[in-house]
Protein: ABC transporter ATP-binding protein
Organism: Kitasatospora cinereorecta
Amino acid sequence: MPLLRVPLSRRPKISPTLQGILSLLRLLPQVSRTKTVLGLSGVLAAAVLPVGVAVVAGLLIGSIRATLDAGLASPAGHRTLTLLAVAGVLVMAQQTFSPVLAMLGETLGREVDRELQQRVMAAVGRPEGTAHLTDPEVLDALRVVRGLGMTETDRPSQAVAALAAVLPAWLRAVAAALALLAFHWWVGLLWLLTWPVVVHFMQREYFRVGEVGQGRGGALRHAEYLRDLVLTRGAAKEVRLWGLLDWLLGRFDGAWREATEPVWRERRPRVRVVLGATGSVALVNLVSYAALAWAAVHHDIGLGWVAVYTQALALANNYTAFDDNNAYLSFAGAAVPRVLGLDAHLEASVTARPAGPPAELPAAFPAGRIALEQVRFRYPGTEREALRGVDLTIEAGRSLAIVGENGAGKSSLVKLVCGLHVPTAGTIRVDGHNLAGLDQAAWRERIGVLFQDFARYHLSAAENIAMGAPRYAGDRERLREAAHRAGALPLIEGLADGWDTVLSPEYTGGTDLSGGQWQRIALARALFAVDAGARVLILDEPTAALDVRAEAEIYDRFLELTAGLTTILISHRFSTVRRAERIVVLEDGAVVEDGGHEELLARRGRYAEMFDLQAARFVEPRQGSAAGAGLRAAAEAGHA
Ligand SMILES: Nc1ncnc2c1ncn2[C@@H]1O[C@H](COP(=O)(O)OP(=O)(O)OP(=O)(O)O)[C@@H](O)[C@H]1O
């Protein structure tokens, strides 16, 4: 069933370019009537003035002979002088109009950007359902909207294109100025000096504006985030359920203005600079043309040379400084070094690893234990420690479960073991080696991991699992085995295109999976890494989204799945946790209890307290008053 009444890709009756221009012209007055009227007048002036200059210049040249014959005081002489004055005024007007028009166009363009985003947000947020958010045609159109904004002008590609347009014009103008040296050395020199100064000032202005724009990056990202809440699937259900569209439209409008208006304001006073620059150029033009007319009238040069120098003057005016290309050059000038400097910036923020070459890993690594020694960890930019002196030995080939309340530091601990962060103090040793000194890529090949917030790749089912060990991506038998062990095989074989089905409804023929189905795929990915040689298996909430039967299946086979592996399991489900050979309780970043399931229950500490709390949920209310041991018995009977 088509999701849109009008297909987005329908063939227009008129040419697509014309259609685009017409719809843009219709949109402009809706954005700003005043600026549209001013802009159109400017366009007319910009079109008519050069023609006027050409006509007057022709008349001027034509009048010279009569003036030569009759003298400057004659009516013919007066006519020549009047034409000269008109030419000067027209050239000046031309020089003044074009930058003002360019600025007007840019301001209107930004307003069109905002208007388009709001219209698209309203259009995308309005349908009751969310199916259109996976329609490839809609998504293709949304890509265009995402490209809108100030970042557009930061693109180095724009600067490269601008360079290609600006450099030849500059070179032509220099050549023309050199030619003018032959007419009068001071006229040539005037051009050679005036333009670089004007270009310098204008580039300084544009650069500053570019810097201001990039300084607003955070505010702009926030506005874009609000926009994308409407344009993407992530929050689509809640946006509809709670009727957030109007609120988001309002927030976006405010955030967008807050992000962009300071840049516009910064640009406004610069009209003074622009007028100063264009005024200087107009003056140089006036002086040059006057000198040329004077020379012609006084027979200093012949008509042929008058024509040559007129052309040279026109070319000298090609030495652009005011148009969009000049602006793009400077905007990217502010952006490119920032992007290129990213490497160095990130280098400085990388936590130092022990000096010397990383240790080579033997094939059967790790054969021994993973030991955390007084490990402390604080996330960059935060004050609070997520781990506060953890001492923990994880025996090779055994399973360890980590439990604890939200925020206790469980996920942080496994991220450290994965080598994704380096402890701020203390050491993690694997087979006696400092983990920080190992070849990190090789170490990660030894780990199969299912993160709590695992990735859902918009790729085929086969690729989604193969991500666990991409070097074996083509090994279908191995993929089948991993999928089978994770209980994902029937699911994959039931998909329309089987293993080749893209797991995203955003692509033609693609499909989405339920939360639990996704979790099986992610588990298969971790087990695929194990098949490929990983000896450490990390499972962070592996069954959180699974139904009761699937969870029971997984924990029934937990010992089989983890046999021979060093396993770290994080879970809030005690039915799964109790299967682990050893359990530690993490509280506020430190280990507070350590032992087997029965041992910890008998200790009547934090573990027993948490276990009892969960067990109580599985018994009838009338049994709620029973003693903890009774509750546990009931719960264990239901779960074992
Ligand atoms: N990327 C991060 N940046 C800053 N602080 C973080 C980051 N991730 C986690 N924290 C903080 O570190 C602490 C430990 O978080 P962690 O995710 O390890 O807890 P957890 O025990 O896994 O919790 P849960 O059971 O909710 O998954 C928390 O206070 C959390 O706010």
Q: What stands out?
A: Residues 75-125 form the longest helix (51 residues). The CA atoms of residues 408 and 588 lie 5 Å apart. The two ends are 47 Å apart (CA to CA). Residues 1-7, 622-640 have pLDDT under 50 and may be disordered.
